[in-house]
Amino acid sequence: MLSAQQLRGVFPAIPTPVNPDDSINAEAARALMRYLLKQGVDGVVPLGGTGEYGALSRAERIRMAGITAQEAAGQIPVIAGVLDPGYHDAMQAGKDFAAAGADGLLVLTPYYTNPTQGGIRDYFLRYADESPLPILIYEIPYRTRIAIAPEVLHELSKHERIIGMKACNTDMWHFLRTVAGVDESFAVLSGEDTLFPLHVAAGARGGIVVTATLLPTAWKKIYELAREGRTQDALALHRSLIPLMNMAFAETNPGPMKSVMDLIDVHAPDMLAPLVQADPALSANLRVELEKQLALFERKL
Q1: Could you give the number of structural domains in the chain?
Q2: With 50 as the cut, is the pLDDT of residue 50 above it?
Q3: Using alpha carbons only, what angle is made at residue 213 by residues 278 and 133, rounded to the nearest 5 degrees?
Q4: Is residue 286 part of a domain?
Q5: Which domain CATH number covers 109?
Q6: C-alpha Rg value of the chain to the nearest Å
Q7: 3-state secondary structure 205-234
């Protein structure tokens, strides 16, 4: 059973490789997993926003969870995203992903209905009680328009089956207050590539990092430096990735990233509606930057 103790290090949020007919490109998905395993990542998170959860059919989501789990083969945890807005669909997704081999679930804050803080608390407590797998809370208020109060997160962190969270709240004061009061058994993971070393320095035990799909070695080094208290060194290395991050997020993720993944031998640039492939000029510039960074880290680390 997945525990908070395993929620340490770098967990790439992985895209879903697809074919032109919107089906999973299984060969590319397996190639991506082989690459990440070879690079020594600490876990993977399929089927989040980066995985285009909302655009996939339910059957293809389950298939992606299964492919990821098969390739992981117990070597690293697979934490599948659950991004449904309604409780019953979210619970069914969790059961399906558990049956497909996932180790944990990343459950999104319920959105659109604008719940109260009490409603959010009750939602996660009920989900944790009924879930077939341990869960992580996924807080991303710039997508859901709902932030979870630190005091509610403190309460939820005491539930034995709520083992952590992906913190995508860019408000550092909110982050600091959250970390200050969560249970020792609860792992706060950074969900922001742009704030990752600061989050680790402030108490995150690792992170769910989008561009770690492309450069896992670089992000592992940033994590190690920050964890060792070498914050300035971690920030300096992180600063060198700002051009890549700027381009990777210049259009809606994962469009730019998918357009250059052939550089890591994953050939699947197609996107799912309503997202489209990245602008060719942006993709070309990102390709140059990624080639430079891959060469740098392959040589030095």
Answers
A1: 1
A2: yes
A3: 115
A4: no
A5: 3.20.20.70
A6: 18
A7: CEEEECHHHCCHHHHHHHHHHHHCCCHHHH
Tokens of 103: 């180790």
Token pair for 14: 């992985």
Tell me the three state secondary structure of residue 175.
Answer: helix
Task: Identify the CA nearest to 244 among candidates 267, 276, 266, 222.
Answer: 222
Q: Decide if pLDDT at 300 tops 90.
A: no
Residue 301 has pLDDT above 50, yes or no: no
Mean pLDDT to the nearest integer, 131-151: 97
50 is in an annotated binding site: yes
Please report whether residue 238 resides in a domain.
no
Among the listed residues 138, 220, 223, 258, the single catalytic one is 138
220 flagged as catalytic: no
Q: Give catalytic status of residue 138 as yes or no.
A: yes
What is the per-residue pLDDT across 171-196, written as a single tens digit (0 to 9) for each?
999 999 999 999 999 999 999 999 99
**Structural domain of residue 22, as residue ranges?**
4-228
pTM score > 0.90 for this model? Answer: yes
